[in-house]
Amino acid sequence: MKKECKKDFERMSEYLDGELNDDICREIKSHLRHCPECRECVDSLRKSIELCKKVAEEEITADMRKRLRAALRNCFASEQS
Amino acid sequence: MDAMEKIVGRYEDRIFTFGLKMCGHLQDAEDIAQETFLNAFRYLKDFRGETKLKNWLFMIATRACIRKRRKKKCEPDYEISLDSFIHEDGSDGKYEIPDWSDDPSDNVMRAELKKIIDVAIQKLPHKYRLVFNLREIEGFNTKETAEILEISTQSVKTRLHRARLFMRDEISKQYMEGRAQ
Known about the structure:
heterodimer, A: mainly alpha, 5 helices, about 0% strand, elongated, B: mainly alpha, Rna Polymerase Sigma Factor, Chain: A, Arc Repressor Mutant, subunit A, 7 helices, about 70% helix
């Protein structure tokens, strides 16, 4: 991996999160225009981040919700007494 | 008590999801949710509103997850090195990341992807998993995550980047293996 590629590889998440200043962003964008490997790297990383965010949702089951609330009611009551 | 019931109603799904993503077991997730709300009930009078209620609850939930891990005497955490993602040929490698289908009828594909991602999250070392779940799944920003975990923003950024690279590796590997079968 070239020195420039490694530098961008290290700060790719900050780049994707918009946490770098404008000058650095411009520098990375310019590098990405000329480097297909880094472009592929940033694209695959972006895609996997988006995928994780979409798939992540969980919902507590009705049974579990009932059990949790009953347990908490008991705990709250005994804490208060 | 009424206030606490409202808090439980509003945040139980989020705290439960966090517990499940951290521990990987329904029973553990339930224990974490219970411990989180019980501690919130105990200390609600001390909550001064300097931080958002949601952030405060996640701070409590994070501590519950850390305690749970200590009790279970899990394997010690290990560091994820950036160099481990650089291949012998000097490249970052080739990755195949599947597309997410917004079509609700594509349930099988969705279930498979969910399984791949859940397994990969469980493979993350604990301290990276905490940051990944808070930032990526729960949507806290870098500063909020640093406050919840009581670490520096730079540590959050470093851990998140490594966790993301790890996840990309795992997702691509599992997906390609699944397709080959």
